[in-house]
Amino acid sequence: MRHRRGHKLEEYAEYLYERCPGLSTVNKIHADLRYIKGIISGKRINHDLPCTEGAGKLCQIWGDLTLWNEFLWLVDAQLLEVTPGVLGVVCLHGEVSAPVYDNILRRHACMLLHWLVKEHRCVKVLELEGTVIPRSHHLFCDALRVSSGLRRLKLRRYYFEDTVSKAIVGAIGSLAMLEELDISKLNLSMDAVIDLASLLTDMKSLRSFSFCDISLVESTAQIFFESLG
User: Fold this and answer.
1) Per its UniProt record, what InterPro entries does this chain match (predicted)?
2) At 219, which helix (H) or strand (E)?
């Protein structure tokens, strides 16, 4: 039986409400996703369009990169072709100047990023710098846990509370298909560092790991490298 148009978005709003404490109400999440328009084109994202990548075929989203970026720029990110035939969300490295009331739009952009990572297996690269995660680490962690295609993850310039850093590391460990992990200029708790060392040995698909400018006390660094064996 076919669902009515928009039913999937209603289910998704309920899903985010349950998984991401403090994000907003179900009705507000649903309304934002359904009605907020791009600031240039005045168009909305069509959430009824699925990922269509497969058998040498590009996803339909390739035709809407400009529209998606009308939203993502508010969190200093853009959706683009990072290598031939491969899509990724990467940092703009720019200053985002917007009125305070646009915090609603930034939250919406974070939800769209979650949608991309969850619903689009064609999005294989995620590179963020100091953005998105501070707005809702629950949203970011869940995006990693339900990722359908991420192969490369790069995180830079984040300063987490201990519980948040542990949650982030745990979510990274759930990326079964991750091939490249690059983290730098992060502060991680001792528990998070120990967890990271443990999960690195279990991530069978991982073939490249970069770890630099991390705030660690000497004893924690020793534990990390000893855990790597």
Assistant:
1) LRR_dom_sf
2) helix 218-228
